[in-house]
Design brief:
This protein is an alpha+beta fold. The protein is 18% helix and 38% strand. The protein has a single domain, classed as 60s Ribosomal Protein L30, Chain: A, CATH 3.30.1330. The strands form 2 sheets. A 5-stranded mixed β-sheet has the order 1-3-8-9-10, with no helix packed on it. Strands 2-5-4-6-7 form a 5-stranded mixed β-sheet, with helices on one face.
Length: 159
């Protein structure tokens, strides 16, 4: 039977084969859904903040750099090569509708810069706006669906 794994804020999970990864009620955070088609490995990181965690911070995976690196480590341990991993991004919504909010854009800029530096291809993304989002990854096929607000699931990848 296929296992469903919830990935909450600051968590990173990588799996091989038949599982479903999901992250729900995403606001300003960004969730990265990663897939390696060659090895059928998948990963998900639920990032809360841009950049890297302070040196003595306990929950490092809340930060973009630390979470992305941890996700890659876990996927490499499952047999993936970084060059074979592609990602999709969901989140960064200004759900509180604050006119001076810069967290969302900081998260977007940070995640994109880190992925670019690591030469990881972004297949698709749904970022920004004002609605909460959720993301669902079928780890066996790499299919990614998402919701916005109260919408039904919408297929993001493959498009």
């Amino acid at each position: 039977m296929c296992q469903t794994i919830d990935v909450n804020t600051g968590e990173v999970v990588a799996v091989k084969g038949d599982a479903h990864l999901r992250s729900q009620t995403i606001g300003s955070c960004i969730v990265i859904a990663a897939f390696d088609k060659e090895k059928t490995n998948s990963g998900m990181a639920h990032i809360m903040l841009a950049g890297a965690a302070p040196a003595n911070y306990k929950h490092k995976n809340k930060y973009a750099l630390d979470a992305i690196e941890q996700m890659l480590v876990q996927m490499i341990q499952l047999g993936s090569a970084v060059k074979d991993i592609t990602v999709s991004l969901v989140g960064a919504g200004n759900v509180l509708r604050k006119s001076d909010d810069n967290i969302c854009q900081s998260n977007i800029d940070s995640v994109r810069a880190i992925l670019n530096e690591k030469k990881i291809k972004i297949n698709a993304s749904v970022l920004g706006g004002f609605l909460r989002k959720s993301i669902f990854l079928d780890a066996k096929t790499g299919t990614i669906n998402y919701t916005q607000g109260d919408s039904e699931k919408i297929q993001l990848w493959p498009a």
